[in-house]
Fold this protein.
Amino acid sequence: MALDFNFLVGGEAGQGVQSVSFVLSKIMMRGGYNVYSDQDFESRIRGGHSFSRVRVSNKPVAALSEKIDVLLALNEETIDLHRKEMKDGAVAIFDGESIKKDFGDGETFLNVPLVRLATEAAQNRLMSNTAAIGAAVGLVDFDFNLLAGMLREQFTRHGSEVAEGNVKAAQAGYDYARQHCPEKFTRRIKPIGNGDNRLLLTGHEAVALGAMAAGCKFVSGYPMTPTTSILEYIAGQSKSFNIPVIQAEDEISAMCMVVGAGYAGVRAMTATSGGGFCLMVEGLSLAGMTETPCVVVLGQRPGPAIGLPTRTEQGELWFALHAGHGEFPRAVLAPANVEDAFWKTVKAFNLAEKYQTPAIILTDHDLANSYLSVPRFDLAQVKIDRGQLLSDEEVSKLTEYKRHLFTDSGISPRALPLQGKVLVATDSDEHNEEGHIIEDAETRKRMMLKRMRKQEGMKSEIDKPIIHRKRGAKAVLVGWGSTYGAIKEAQELLGKEGVAVNVLHLNEIWPFPDKAVASMIEDSVKSVVIESNATGQLARLIRTETGIKATGTILKFDGRPFSAEYIIDELKDVL
Amino acid sequence: MALDFNFLVGGEAGQGVQSVSFVLSKIMMRGGYNVYSDQDFESRIRGGHSFSRVRVSNKPVAALSEKIDVLLALNEETIDLHRKEMKDGAVAIFDGESIKKDFGDGETFLNVPLVRLATEAAQNRLMSNTAAIGAAVGLVDFDFNLLAGMLREQFTRHGSEVAEGNVKAAQAGYDYARQHCPEKFTRRIKPIGNGDNRLLLTGHEAVALGAMAAGCKFVSGYPMTPTTSILEYIAGQSKSFNIPVIQAEDEISAMCMVVGAGYAGVRAMTATSGGGFCLMVEGLSLAGMTETPCVVVLGQRPGPAIGLPTRTEQGELWFALHAGHGEFPRAVLAPANVEDAFWKTVKAFNLAEKYQTPAIILTDHDLANSYLSVPRFDLAQVKIDRGQLLSDEEVSKLTEYKRHLFTDSGISPRALPLQGKVLVATDSDEHNEEGHIIEDAETRKRMMLKRMRKQEGMKSEIDKPIIHRKRGAKAVLVGWGSTYGAIKEAQELLGKEGVAVNVLHLNEIWPFPDKAVASMIEDSVKSVVIESNATGQLARLIRTETGIKATGTILKFDGRPFSAEYIIDELKDVL
Amino acid sequence: MTMTSAKVTIEDYAAASEIAWCPGCGDFGILRAVKKALVELQLEPHRVLMVSGIGQSGKLPHYTKSNMFNSLHGRALPPAIGAKLVNPELTVMVFSGDGDAYGEGGNHFINAMNRNIDMTYIVHNNQVYGLTKGQASPTSDLGFTTRLNPEGAWVPLRPLALAVACDCSFVARSFAGDLEHLSKMVQAGITHKGFALIEVLQPCPSWNRVNTFKWYSERVYKLDGDKSYNPADRTAAFNKALEWGERIPIGLIYKKDRPLFEEYTGAFGKEPLVKQKLDPMQFESLLDEFK
Amino acid sequence: MTMTSAKVTIEDYAAASEIAWCPGCGDFGILRAVKKALVELQLEPHRVLMVSGIGQSGKLPHYTKSNMFNSLHGRALPPAIGAKLVNPELTVMVFSGDGDAYGEGGNHFINAMNRNIDMTYIVHNNQVYGLTKGQASPTSDLGFTTRLNPEGAWVPLRPLALAVACDCSFVARSFAGDLEHLSKMVQAGITHKGFALIEVLQPCPSWNRVNTFKWYSERVYKLDGDKSYNPADRTAAFNKALEWGERIPIGLIYKKDRPLFEEYTGAFGKEPLVKQKLDPMQFESLLDEFK
Ligand SMILES: Cc1ncc(C[n+]2csc(CCOP(=O)(O)OP(=O)(O)O)c2C)c(N)n1
Ligand SMILES: Cc1ncc(C[n+]2csc(CCOP(=O)(O)OP(=O)(O)O)c2C)c(N)n1
Ligand code: SF4
Ligand code: SF4
Ligand SMILES: [Mg+2]
Ligand SMILES: [Mg+2]
C-alpha cells in the first residue's frame, strides 16, 4: 500500500527546527523509507519563523509536498501559519503548557506537555525538542529503537548521561503520544526495511562529496548562502584528506587562487552564490584564456542584489552562460537532485580538466539544503579522467614545451610547473603557443579558433537530457536543475488523473544538447517550461538553440520551491 | 566627381603617428571633406608598429578603407608592412636619409629628406613630422593655408616661435613634395568648402560630450582602454562645468559610487572595458534592485581576459544583456557611429532615469578611437527627461513617501534625500514599498513584477533599427554597433556591382526591437549577420527573440575592424 | 551637518522595521548609542543618510529612521561616498560589520580613510561573520574555531593600525556595552570634519562564544581620561592601535587635521551637485574645440 | 627553494619575448637585478614560478625564462598563492606595478602580507599608471597632474606603512637604478622564509616627468649600513616606512620571524598537493556518516 506521509516541524530560528527535522528524516530512512525534507528559514539567526517538512514514502520521493499529516509546532505561530495545510484527519502536536491558546475546532490538536515530560523524564527542559520528536514518532507508532539509537549516536559525544537523558525524554513523548493518540488519527508508519544502502544528505553535501571523490585538492571561497555548506563540509575533512579550504578575503581572490592552483596542477574548486559569482567572472575569463581547469559552484538564490538570501531561485542560467568578458568555452551543469549533484560534480571536474576550461555547477538554495535519501554512491564508479595531462615520464622526454600548442581538438597537452624541466608559461593577454604575449591578427585568430574548438569536443560528452515518456502524451513538461523531483511527480499525479504528459529535464545545459531537446519538444503538441525565475530563462535558451518557442511557461519567483501540486494547479491555465 | 582618398601614416609608438594623422584629418575636414580616420596601435608606449588611416571623401564615409593612396612612412617597417596595400599609382613618402633601404620597383616612392628639411627650415629636427604632413599635403596640392592655420592653433601655446617653426617645416615639406611629385601621381585634393558646421571627433569624445550635455554630474571610473578617454575628456572639463571625475581604487568602487550618486539624485556614469565591467556587475544588479538610474559605458575589446587591449571586438553583447545576478530591467544601446554615440548617450541617461534602472552603452575600441567628421551637434535638440523625479514642491507636500510604490508602469515617483523632509529608503535586499527588508513571498512577487514591468515601458521607447532598402534585394546584411559604416558602404559598393542587398542595423539592442527585426529579415531570402566576434552573438539574439536563424554570418575576431572590402570579399562565400 | 530648532526626540528615530537581531546581541547597544547621539546632536532624520553593507550590522538603518541605502556586502563605503560628494549637506553615517569593512570591503576601507571625505564609519566588530552563521572574520582571534575554520582562524588584521597607516583623520574604538562612551564617540565622529572611523566591540552571543560581553568588559580601558596619551602623536597611535589582548584600549586613538578630499579640487562647485541646473546649451563652446 | 649543482648562467634567463618597454625605462634595471639574483642563487628557471599582474611591470616574466602565469590587473597575488600552496617546491616570485599592487589589488596586498606565505613580491613603483598612458596611481605624489587628474593627484597611500601595520615579515625598498642593491634585496627576499615585499622605485620616463631617475637618485639613502637602525623594531619601521620626500630610505625596513600560513594547519599534508594520489575509494568512510 502506498504511504506518502508528511511531517512539518515549525518554530523560531534558533529553536531547533532543523535538528528535529533531521532526526525524523534519518530514522525514517533507517526504517526503510524514502525521505525528502526541505528547509524554509529566514535570513536571521534567532526569532522569525522557520519550518521543515519531512516527507516519508515507500515510493521514491524527490520533492516537497504541501499537505501535512503531522504538524509539530514548537511555537504558536507555526500553528497559525500552517494549520491550513493540514490534511483531513491530520494532527497538530503542541505543548499546551507553553502555547496557551484555544485553536478552536477544525483540525485535531494533540496537546503534549513537552517541557514537563522532558523535565520529569530527564530533568532537562531543554530536551523538550527530543520529547517532541518522540511524540511525533509515537503518534505514527514507529519503532522507538530507531529513534533511541539515533539519539545515542548524536549525543554520546556529550556524555552518556546526556544521551540517555535524551532517550528518556523521547520515550516520554513517545509514550504520551501513543496513549493520547486521537482516535481519528489512524495513520501509522511501520519500518519496512533498513536504510543500510542508503544515505541521507543535502544537495550541497553531495556536491562536497562529489568534489572530494573527484580528486579536488584545493578549495578557496568566501562564505555565502547557500554554498557555505560546501566549504564547511570539506573544511571539516581538510586534515584527514589533505584538502585545504582557504577562506579568502573576497571572492575575487578565491576565484583567482583556484585558477593558480589549477595552473600548478591540482583539481581546484570554489563555491559561491550570485553576488560572489559577480566578483568571480573576471577570473572565470582568466581561466578561459589561460586554459586552466577549474570548477565553480554557483548556488542560486533570488536576486537581484542581495534579494532573498535564504530562499531559492533559478535566475542565473543566462548569467552563468555568458559571465566573463570575451568568448571562451565552458561547461554548465545543473544537477537535477541530490544524487545527481554528486555525479555532476564528478563530471564537472572531468570536463574542466579534459577541456582545460571552467566548469560551472548551477545549483540553488532548495537543492543545497533539502535532504534526500539516496542509494549509497558507488565510489568505484567514480572515474577520474585528467585528459591530456602528461605523465611525469612524458614530460621528462620533452625538450621544449608549448603550453598552448595548436591541435585539431583544440586541447594542448598539459605539463605542470616542476613536473620536469620544461617551462610552463601562460598569459591572460592573447598569446602564442608558448604562452607569450602577441599582437598579430593571425595568431589571435588561430588561438580563438583553437579554444573554441574545445567547445565542440565538450558537446560530444554532454549527456542526453532526462526524458520520461507517457503513452499518448500531448504535452511535455520541460525543466532544469533542482525542479526535477516536483516536475516528475506532477507527471505521475497527472497520469493518475488520466492526463498523459512527457517530461524533458535538463541537467547538463552547456554545451546545449540541442538535437535531443528539439526532437523531444517537436514530438509534443504543447510544451510547458517550468522554472523558478521571472523571465523564462530555459525557455529562451531553447528558442536560441533550437528556434522552438515553448507553448507555455510556469514561472515562480517568490523564493519558494515548486511542488507537484503547484505545478498541476498552474498547468490548468496553460495546458 | 567622386573623391575617395586614403592616407596611411605609420611608425613606432611614440613617433607621433596619431598627431600626424589628426592634423591631416582636421585640415581635410576644414577643406570641406568628410573624414574617417582609424587608429591601429599596440599595447605599448614606445616601439612596435602603429598606424592610422585618414580617409577623405566628398561623399559620406564612415569606415576605413584598406587601399592606400599616400603612404606616409615614419619608419622602414611601415613600408614593409603596408606597401602591399597601396593602390596602383599610389605614392609612399619616406625620409631616405634615415630609412636607408632600397625598396625596389613596383610602387612609387618619394624620398623626402624630412629631418633635413625640418632642420634647415626650422632648426629643429624634431619637426620632421610636421614636414611629413607638409609633404603629404603638398603631394595632393591641398591648400597650405589650412595646414598653416592648424599648426598655429596647435603650437601657439608653446610660443609663436615654435608655431612658426612648425609652419616653416611644413612649408618645406609641402614645397619639396610639390616639386618632386612623381609624374604618375595625379591625384589632387582641392578644398571644396569649409568645415564650419562640422566637428571632427572620436566615438568616445562623442560619448563624453553626450554625457555632459545630458546633464551627467558625477563620473567615477578606473582607467582602462578604450574608455579612459571618456574619463579623461570629462576630467579636463571638470572644473569648468562642475562634473567631478573620481578615479576610484577599483571598478567595484567606481560603480558603487555611481549608484550612490544616482540614489542621491544626480545623473551619474562610469566607463570601463570588459575586465572592469566584470567587477561592476554586482553593482549593476544593486542598481537594478534599488531602482537607481546609472549609465555604464562598456567599451569592448578582444577577450577573454586581457586579450588584445588595444584592439577591437564585439564580444560582450550577451554579457552586457545578462551581467549581474538575478533578473532586472536594463537598456543596452550600441551606437552605430560617432554621431550616434552622442545621441545614444543622451538617450541612455533619459532611459536610465525614466525607468530608474541601469543603461549600458556598448561601444568598442574601434568606435572609441576612430575620428569621424560629423555635423555639429545641435544642443538645442538635447532633451533631458528626468522621468518621474518629483519637484521640490511636490515633495514638500508629501507627508509620507514610498520609494518603491507599486504602480501600473512599475515606475515609482522618485524623491531625493534632503529634497524635503520625507525619508528615502532603499535596500539591496528584497523590500517593501517603503524600501525596507522583507521575506514574504507575496511582496517579493509583487516587487519583481513591478520592476519587470518597467522593461515593457522601456521597450516602447526603443527606436526602430536603422534600415536601408534597395530595390530587388534578396539578402539583408545585419549588424550592430560600430560596424555600421563598413556595412553600409558594402551595400553601396555591391549596389555598384549590381548586387542589391538591404541593411538592417541595430543600435538600440535591449529591450529588443523584435517585430521590426523579424519583419525585415523575413522580407529577405537571405540574411547575413556581420559582427566582430567568434560566436555570432547578434545572430543568436535574433534567434532568441524572433525564432529566426540567419542564413549566414561573417564573423571577425582578429582584433581588427571591418572594412567594406572585407565584407564584400567574405560575402562571396555566404551569399 | 546642519542643526535645527525643532526638538528632535528619540521617537523620531523609532524602528522602521521589525528588529531581527538575536536577543542579547551587541548591535542593540550600537543602535541605542547611535540614536542617542543623533538626538543629542538634534539632527533630524531627514538630514541623515545611513548607508550600510550586508551583515547583521547592515540591518541597523532599517531599525531606526533616516534616509537609507542598504548596499552590497563589503560595499557600504562607495555608495556613501558617491552620495556625499553630490550632496554634502547630508550627514552621512556608514555601518559595516568586521567582515564587511575589513574583509570584502578592505580596498574601499583603506582608500576611504586616505581620501578623508566627511562621514562617520561605524564598524560593528564582533570578530565573526554573524549573518552567515559564524565563520572567522579578519578580526577573529588566532585559533578561533568555526565550522569553516576547524583548525582555527589565522592571525587577525589590525584595522586600527591600518587606519593610522592611512592617516585616517579620526580613529576611535568603543564598546557596545558602554552606551555613554559609545554615544559620545559617535557624536564626536559626526562632528569631526573628515572621515571618522569608530570600531565598536560588539558581542555576538550566537556565534562568538569566546569574545563575549564579559570578555570585552574585562579588557577594555578608556584612553579618554588619560592625559599621558596624545592622539595627535601618530607613532603612539600606531602602537596603541596594535594593542590587543589582556587590555584593549577604547576611546580616541588618533586624530589629525587634514584637508577634505571634497575641498581639494574645484570640480564640485559651490552648490551641491544635486542642486545644480542641467543645461545642455552651456556646452556649445566645447563643440568649437572639435571644429 | 632548492639549489642545484648544474651551473646556472645569465643565458638561462634570456628573454622569451621581444621586450616592449620604452627605452630608458626603470623596468630594465629590475629585470637585470632579478636575473642576477636568480643566477647568484643558482636557481634554475624551471624551479621558479613568476606570476604577474597587468601593467608594464606585468610583462617582466615574458622577458626572461621561468614558469610563468601572467594574471589579470590587480590579481597577481591570488594565483601565486594558489600555486604556491599546492606546490610549495616552487620558488614563487610575483611582479606588480604600483597600480596593480596598491590600487586594484589593494585587498589582496593587505591579506597576503598578513597571511605570510613564502614568496617574494616585487612592486615596480613608478608612481604612475604606465601601460594605460599615465594616470595617477596610489603612490603618485600629491598634486601630480595627468590628463585624468588635471587638478593633481590626491594624497598618496604609504604602502610600506601598511606593510608594517600588516606585520609583513619582510619589508624592503630598493631602486631600479642601483643594480647591486636591488639584486641583493631580491636575493634576500627569495631566501627569506615568508612573504617578502620589495618595493622598487622605478623611473618611468614616458609618463612620470616628476619622479625621474635623477629625482630618485638625489633622494635615496641606504639603511643597510646604518647600525642605529633596527629593522626588527616595529615602531621604528613604521616611522621609517612613512619617510618620503627629501630623503627616501632604501634597504630592509622591517623584518619579523613569523609562522608561515602553510605550516599552520595540517591540511596540506607532507607531500605537495600536486603530487598526492587521487583515490575516490578513500572516501568510503565518509559516506557512512550519512547512513
Ligand atoms: C559578495 C558577497 N559575498 C558574501 C556574502 C555573504 N555574506 C553576507 S553577510 C556576510 C558576513 C557578515 O559578517 P560581518 O560583515 O562581520 O557582519 P555581521 O553579520 O557579523 O554583523 C557575508 C559573508 C554576500 N552577501 N555578498
Ligand atoms: C580590471 C582592470 N582594470 C583596468 C585595467 C587597465 N590597466 C591595465 S594596466 C593598468 C595600470 C598600470 O599601472 P601599474 O599597475 O602601476 O603598472 P605600470 O604599467 O605602471 O607598470 C590598468 C589600469 C585592466 N587591465 N583591468
Ligand atoms: S548572529 Fe550575532 S551579530 Fe547577528 S544578531 Fe545574532 S548575536 Fe547579533
Ligand atoms: S610607459 Fe613608463 S613604465 Fe611603461 S615601459 Fe614606458 S617608461 Fe616603462
Ligand atoms: Mg561581524
Ligand atoms: Mg605604475
Q: What stands out?
A: Chain B touches chain C through 72 residues (CB under 8 Å). The CA atoms of residues 259 and 287 of chain B lie 6 Å apart.
